[in-house]
Write a structure and sequence with these properties.
Blueprint (H helix, E strand, L loop, with lengths): L1 H8 L13 H14 L15 E5 L2 E4 H13 L11 H20 L6 H14 L10 H11 L4 H24 L6 H12 L1 E9 L2 H11 L2 H10 L5 E7 H7 L4 H8 L10 E3 L2 E11 L10 H27 L3 E2 L5
Antiparallel strand pairs: 1-2, 1-7, 3-4, 3-6, 5-6
Helix pairs in contact: 3-4, 4-7, 5-7, 7-13, 8-13
Amino acid sequence: VVCAVACAQDDVKKQRGTSASPIQTDEYLSTLTSTAGSLMKSGPTQAGPDGIAGEIFGIPISVGNYSFAKRVVYTFPQPWGAADLPEEKREDVVWEQLILHYEAFRRGIEATEEELETMINELLRGEQQSFTRRGDPVAYRHWVTEILKGDVELLENQVRYLIQIRKLKDRVLQEQIVSVTEEEMQQEFLNERHHVAGEMVVFDTKEAAEAFYEQVRDPTHWEEMKAKGEHTVRPVSLMTLEAYMDLWGIPKEPMYAFHARELSSVGPPMPFGKQWCVYRLLDKRTGDLNDFPSQRESYARQVELKKKYAALKQWIEQLKTSAHLKIFVSTP
């Protein structure tokens, strides 16, 4: 955060631009510009007509407001999972957050002083600072201006922007009504109780993985391949099927088929994120549904929350579609 904020503050933009539009649009633009505070440049940007970066819900978004939203994503990448995203994907996040911020405004969602205090103090603790914003305002201001090389108003407006979006998502999450079946609860239970461990070789294409599998599907041939050192064999420790499916993106069906195999056997290629893997099973654990009843309520809440997050994701996609996003700005 220190580096990101310091870099962001190197070139503060003083302008506050809005465009003529209907009264409710003016009100939102005024709110967004106020939130942006001292707007920043985020690198070379080619603006659209009249200095407009794009439109959401027919509302023109100035380059200044766009730059502010972009800098928030770069300064605080963690809430969006944007830390490792390529540039074009980060742009998607920037516009998604602008759309969400507009919806938060439309619903009258604001960041309270207490929420601002709490989030900034969390930031301070994360940066190993012992003081708080309210407890030692002099130290806080010194930290922002001298350590971050930034501006207090700008930092706090960035945090308010984050809070508004977070509160919107929390509210919409609670609004989702989902049903949970007995089968879904038991499936989740088994996902977390079934474990596998072994070795795998990763390939960029399905075709390469299939050709390799034909060579090593006999476990003795796998050992011969290892002895020759022809491929990089990765050891994989004992993990739940849930971890394989969530972290590595391996679909449920091939994962369960692999768990059902005999120890030491080599399974057919499975998707592995954007790659493919051939996996040899060396150890496994099997869940027992007799243990499920005592934990049924816990899994009911767990599955309900997971389905609510899936519904929230779908709601966000529908909101983005209804925004009729137009992008005029271009970045290198």
